[in-house]
Amino acid sequence: MRIIIFFITMILLLISNIFSNSEFYHLEVKGIIDAAIADYIVKSIDKAEKENIQGIIIEMDTPGGLMKSMRTIVDRILASKIPIITYVSPKGARAASAGTFILLSSHIAAMAEGTNIGTASPIDFAGNKASEKITNDSIAYIKNLARLKGKNQKWAEDAIIKNVSSSEIEALKEKVIDVIAKDIDDLLKKINEKQIEIENKKIKIKTENYTIKKIEPSLKHKFLHALTDPNISYILFIIGIYGIVYELAHPGAFLPGVAGAISLVLAFIGFDSIPINTAGLILIVLAIIFFIVEAMTPTFGAWTIGGVISLGLGSVLLFPSRKLGESWGASYWIIAFMMILTVFIVGIVLVAIIKAQRKKRIIGKENLVGLKGIAISDIFESGVANIGGEDWQAYSDEKIKKRDIVEVINVEGIKLKVKKIEKNKEV
Fold first, then answer.
1. CA dihedral 272, 275, 280, 281 (to 10 degrees)
2. Which one from 69, 89, 97, 233 is the annotated catalytic residue?
């Protein structure tokens, strides 16, 4: 009898362990908060709710991002039916600007050792401090988030007004976050049995026998998010310029023009998430104009020098928020490399143009008399002959058949008078 009771107890314990298993989704958010990141988080929360997941851990390292995307994420977190745990990690990570709002809106706010949070003052797309109206609205918004989650409202206000930034130790002391954890395992152990409120109901987070499922962003999300990297957007922008300039200089090339147009569109998708300076953009457009003028009416360097200077100044001025961190501007090394590449490419084009000009001078109209060539078509009152490697309009006093060898005897404007010197030369 005792053996039977023992086995029943063991089975019940096993069943209890199986059903008490807690599964958490793990999301990674790195870089600028943009529309792709917002969609990734929203869809992950939707999926977790449908599958009745115990909770979501958002591991975050961000310099900030778009206010619209941030609000989309915050609104979805506030409406979530499952616990959302935002964790600033790894060491050296930050939750700046938009990341501060997201952290404060979460059911559990956590930070790893050596991380920081704050500097949430809004800026416009010129990199300047936002208007008083937007700033006041942001203050009210962040204070409401802090109030709803029982966080320090005064600190939240100072994060906008004074651009306050705090380490994980200071944030815990100021009641901005709930816990400091070395890693995700440590985090889940520390929040076990922690009480939170969802839909006006008090619930306890259960992390016994937990499992973690990493949710990767889709290829679309990864691609669109990659475009917010200023280095990638800038390189695409310059490549787009190359393609458009080449197409305008060589109409009908088609492929460079299409590639250039696509690159420019992708670059501006990235610029949509990064503050850019109008003056920088104007200087870069001016550089494009200079390069086009050089390609169409070569001055052998004058327009090119102006274009390179304009492109360099525009590239440096293009990212006004660079002072906030490297995430907000293309690397100076990348800019320098693209300048050198531009000079190299334009130099090749100029050399080709100079050679073509010299060739035309060598084979000028005054030097055509006496040159021999091939009739491209039948020639009498009119026709076409290839002389000196170029096709010319030609005429003759005698009938000349296609592929006959001809000699130039006179030049009249852009038309050559030729005579036949050998019949029907096969080529």
1. 10
2. 97
